[in-house]
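Predict the 3D structure for this chain.
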Amino acid sequence: MRKAKGYTQEELAIKLNVVRQTVSKWEKGLSVPDAHILSKIADILDTKVSILLGSTISDEIDENAVAEQLAKISEQLAIKNRRNRKIWKTIGIILLIMVLFTILLVIFNMPVSKSISTENSTSFIEKNN
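Done. Predicted structure below.
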């Protein structure tokens, strides 16, 4: 629809105050625009939000149906974002634990290795005398 109206991704992105890559993600279905941006897109492209969403909602159905559909999409996106944040948080915690464990190993092994090397040098010196 954007191409039919003569807009490039860059031009549409500028009008929406987003980057071109965001428009590309929307078109590829990798993400969805927020409800207020979807409304702006409809205004810019001179169409209805329902058409942008791929529905053939008739004029008889009021905007509540569109609002419900937008709410569902926003909820799905929020769930996906929460899941992604939870995954990254878990990965971060695991990495932090690994780093702390490594630091503790280094701290507690250093005195042991020093005492072993000291004992070996002392015993070597005693044997030679």
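The chain has a mean pLDDT of 81.
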